[in-house]
Queue: 3 jobs
Job 1
Amino acid sequence: QALFGALEELGRVRESLAVSQGAIEMSREHGLPLTEIRARNNLAAWLGSYEPRRSLEVLGPAFELAERLGHREWVAKLGFRAWVAFEAGDWDLAAAIVGDQLRDDLPLISWLPLVATEAVLGAWRHDPRQPTGGIDRLRERTTAGATAQDWSAVHWTECHVALAAGQLQDARRSAQALQAAGQAIGDIANPSWMAGIVASWQGDEAGVREALAVLEPVPAVFRSIPGMRAHLGGVRAAMAGRRGEAASHFVEAADAFRRAGSAWCLAMCLADAATYLGADDPIGRGSLEEVRVLATGWVASVLLERIDWLIGRGRPRRDRASVVRAEVADPLLEPSER
């Protein structure tokens, strides 16, 4: 545990992952269940948004051990499985974990990811223009004494809720705050990708370039990181009118996200590919079909609304990608947000 923490502090992620994997094997060999739970927690937390399907596989035995031992503290801590399940595309599992484990008397470290997941699921599954108390609850409890990791979860939630509601300026502010929190905890890839998504939805080419510039030097420690780069590279190419290059980038990104088991990242990539390439393009059309299947399975009404509009718009495409993106957002944006 001390070695993992020291390596993590130094930003040596590969070594941290290797130490955690070795600790899992050693603890199983020597019958040390609490050591195994801790090691699995450490490994799964790093895999998190980057390889969520694998993270869930790592967390499953840890949760079973904690329940078998009757270790209530570890059972509660491992509730962040809900957030991981959301990223992996298992939204019913995410909702079930929230329903089973969320209590107001939990410590912040256990309570926060459950409330964050509840708020994000509610935003994408229901009409986000309806009032929700999830964000307010997060802000009220995340006080000045909270850690950068706590604030990262808050800003991640704010960004999702604002995106779902089509409040793109709010999403941009939350993405910037998420990037700052990510810098503080040594996690810059996913926050920068989220900032790139917001910029893409705004048709902000400079914002996409800035996010991509942060991502480009990040080592490909996780399978989804090359996908994040390729995704935003596809958006940038499409905005510049290089449709063939954009299509190639989107295909590369989607393949990387599938390998990473990151269904949420895949959905965002497919939505952008469909938007920027259009239904008259084979890759754009295939992206529309695939993201529609994902959103239908998730009962994600907001995503479905956007996709339905894309399929049924029946208008000639205009060449400027930023104009097309603005059109796509129209049905969900208030006039003040356009």
Job 2
Amino acid sequence: ILNQSSSYQNANGVFGGGHAVGNYDPAISGQTFKPSQANVGNTEITIKKGAIMAAGNTSPGASLVGGGFADGDERNINNDCPEITKVLGNVKITIEDEITLASAFIGGGTVISAGDASVGGFIDIKLGDNCKINKTYQGGGLTKPGIQSSYFSPVIKADVTGDIRAEFGNNIYFNEIFIGGGYANLSDSSVNVGGKIKSKFLGGATIASAYVAAGCVFTSASNAEANVLGGLDILINGNFNVQSYYGAGRALGSYSSADIGKSGSPVTVVTKFLGSGDNTIVSTNSLFNGGYAKNLAHANIYGDVSLICDGTRPVKLLIGGGDSKDAVA
């Protein structure tokens, strides 16, 4: 998206991958199983300085989706077949300086109600200086309910096979929750990351809601997965302002998981806060270097955890582990 006149809205939503719906009627077509597919190879999105993203796409409620969009809400009432819109390769997203996204940022694919919007490779994200994201940021995929959630769902996933690599410029502002991995907001769905999450903040980041370094499962999503199998490598430079801080995953749905690593395959979780000596980590609530879980969910870390503060200091209580309520973290 290139620079345009000041009164011109370039786009209300950009999708890197395809858009799949299952809106055919098997009773008419005579076919009992016919998935709707819109797969692509690699995707690349570049939003140039000066572009205007004045309104977010209402479905799935995002200004940018790096992967595909599997829309189960468009499914015909008689159709139980999956919507499939995979990125078979990698996703690359570049947003230049001083861009504001009116709605959410989704690095991977998105599924509403049912479907498969997985990414087969890695995701590479770069935001320039002075950018603002007004809604949720999730570096991985998103699953969310829709009006057709009661229909048969053969598959519900927006996984990422490889790493998620993200670099954020100076003075970045996130108006809602920041999730480094995937966000599962639908029961029995998965937004797992098979590789490592590598996030780098160059300086001066503000998050008006919670910061979750890995994956997140929402309260209404039972038996969902937002795991990260490859570990974390996080570098935060300069001042860091946040409402709540979780240095791992966050699992709120009953019997869900937002683990890092897995039993028998230990990984490393490394977080470094670097500053010039007078930088601060400001949080409304206590800072948890581990995860958060409740409702019989778990947000475990399988492996070694390292936290380094060099030239910066937390102004709230910093807890080396996680937090839980009727769960394991």
Job 3
Amino acid sequence: YKLRDVIDLKRVEWLTTVAPDQLAPQLGAVVRELLVNEERHLTGEGLPFVKTTTVLTDTFKMILGRVFSALRENREFTVWLNMDMGSGKTHLLTLITYLLYSYEAFKEMKEYRELGLDENIAKSTALFVVDLRTPSELRTTFLPFFARSLEKAGEYEASRYILECVGRGGHPEASELVRKLRRDTRLVIIVDELHHAILTYRATESERRWVKWVVDFTVHLMNYLRHHRRGFVVLVASARRDYERVLQIEDKDELSFTAENLLSQLARLEPVLETRWLSVWEAEKIILRRLGASREDILHPMLGKLVERVVKAESDIPQAQHLRSLI
């Protein structure tokens, strides 16, 4: 057979024209599109992302199972995803957002039901999702999305409260928000690119203020939810390289200490999860999905050896994180 007969040529041509960053999901953009037109976004990008692009790795399965279990049992689960660039942090957070916010579109997918997702969990869960690459979107995107998610869960008073705060140019108070929750609603709080924001916005007053508010609000929300015996899930993600760069900063500011407080809260509630990057088999499966391949024997036998070298923590390949990100 010829290679062009067993791959999706249009998809391969598209792959040759885009930067690696465009292949990864942008959590802020996904939230924005779901808020503007959920049905159109799911048809254009959401459904292919979940059904075609996503490969459920062992790490993904472990975290998804823990998230769904905590929501079902109305208890706490928190995790800090401090993983290498290209390890799928944002992909996982985007997947969780889709599955819980737009459950009806994915309810027939057996693999997620087997991990514990069901209609009761999805319909009794509201999401506060923030991509800290764009903290200035807090009032225009992330808080309105939170309000819409609360409304979907039947929490109309809490939803109106957030929108009223935004309309006045203010921010919701965690204590007041929790008091306005009337149903047996669980909250999922997702914060992506924490340490990227610390590095990027240290000297930018307006964005730094948004980042600090998000971190403080998350800590206060956790405390009040615990006080009212409500289940919640918190997922905070950082690229390990960004975290290590923040550790090297000698003149730490208030934002750095605020982030450290959040991470200490997460560690106190849940021990650090053992996560790993892709296995060779998982990486090859993702590549085949990306190529739209109709069979699995088209990859060069030496590709596995290359992947093994790329995934090592001390890889001998210069800037191996870019290859991981590309995969």
